[in-house]
Amino acid sequence: MTSMALVVMCVAMFAGGRGLAAGSVGDVLRVRFGGDAERTRVVLDLGSSARGEIVESGSGGSVVLTLAGVAPPRALDGAGSGLVRGYRVTGTGTASRVELQLARSGEVERRFLLPPGDGVPNYRYVIDLRGVGPARAANRQAQATVPRAETRRTERPLIVIDAGHGGRDGGARGANHNESALTLAAALALKAELERTGRYRVMMTRTNDAYVDLYQRVRIARNADADLFISLHADAGSDPATRGASVYTLSEQGASRAVREVTRGDNWHRDLHLPGRDPSVDRILLDMTQRATQNRSAQFARVLLSHIEAADQPLLRRSHRDAGLAVLLAPDVPAVLLEMGFITNPDDERALADERRRGRLMRAVAEGIDRYFREPSAPLQIASTGGGAGGQP
Questions:
Q1: What whole-number distance in Å separates Cα of residue 97 and Cα of residue 92?
Q2: 61: domain CATH number?
Q3: Are residues 215 and 333 in the same domain?
Q4: Number of domains the chain contains
Q5: Same structural domain, 94 and 163
Q6: Same domain, residue pair 120 and 188
Q7: Tens-digit pLDDT profile for the chain (393 aa)?
Q8: Is residue 388 part of a domain?
Q9: 367: which of 31, 76, 281, 330 is 20 to 30 A away, CA to CA?
Q10: Spatial distance between the Cα atoms of 320 and 385, rounded to a whole number of angstroms
């Protein structure tokens, strides 16, 4: 099941009204819920902009926050969904107090304000909650009826391997090699490693020295309904002493760009298997899918870096980075871009050009993919995280 199909099923639980507050009068218009007993999104539709502040973060069995600048005409309350057992919104002068009673231990993962736009006439304050600790029995039963975001199809996972650059785009240049040649050699080695296990289907965006448009690489993965997309590159820098691998996942700015790209055409609802009846609901569905995809991409990045490090491959100090790279823009396919090392560093270039050392790196990547699909929620600690720029396309 694709992540988009999953989200449509999740939202079907609350679209009929379970998470809607009665009435739409005043600055706090309504409250909506989506997700499941592991991760739940709370959306407050507002008549104007607001500034949120957390009062209780969930450790005491509830999440409480104030929203300055909006106030309901009367108290709003009702049943919740997923992690939220119930909610209550009360006015305190020119602010609102929002209380979410949790069905199990949880925490606020992120919160943000969305302005009107793209067919949605009002502001939306979004709170993403994540479950902490073991689920209670009632939630286990609920989870049995709601597929989780990590649910995979019964067939073997499909991995799309993208050899960066190619054809008229040779990429970065080292002392003796073009990036495009090294990425293709690595991609073919990774394909062989994955196919040797018999556990995966593998597709490549290019199998020779051909030019493939960046957005076409994304379309290949999306059209194939891929379970994972990995783009291979070699970094470049002005200092030849700089070396080490790093992994990019999609940044928040890139996520906004991805939404613009996906919703550019008239038939984007059908392309993403959305209902198409309510533009505001469809946009929430798209955002939920993208958030789930970003979470899975980040988890794979951490797993991947741990296996590369365990194989004694050097890593950059800040080895997990984020950016709005074109090949990471699919909202429904977990994706990473692996900079295998610096082609401008003599040691890294020799390692990438050496078949044996390149093969060892790709075995580590294949082991990381194995770990990701075997333990998609395994907690890992990678100290070297952060944002930054590299030799990306």
A1: 7
A2: 2.60.40.3500
A3: yes
A4: 2
A5: no
A6: no
A7: 444 444 444 444 333 333 333 333 358 888 988 777 788 889 888 988 889 999 887 777 899 999 999 988 888 888 888 889 999 999 887 899 999 999 888 888 888 888 887 567 888 898 988 888 765 433 333 333 333 334 445 579 999 999 999 999 999 999 999 999 999 999 999 999 999 999 999 999 999 999 999 989 988 998 898 999 999 999 999 999 999 999 999 887 776 666 666 666 555 445 554 444 555 555 565 666 777 788 889 889 999 999 999 888 899 988 999 888 888 888 889 999 999 999 999 999 999 999 999 999 999 999 999 999 987 654 443 333 333 333 333
A8: no
A9: 330
A10: 5
Three-state secondary structure of 161-219: EEECCECCECCCECCCCEHHHHHHHHHHHHHHHHHHHCCCEEEECCCCCCCCCHHHHHH
CA-CA-CA-CA torsion for 266, 159, 228, 332, nearest 10 degrees?
20
Assigned token pair, 88: 């209550």
Question: Where does a domain end: 101, 116, 144?
Answer: 144
Residues 138, 165, single domain; the answer is no
Is 175 found in the same domain as 308? yes
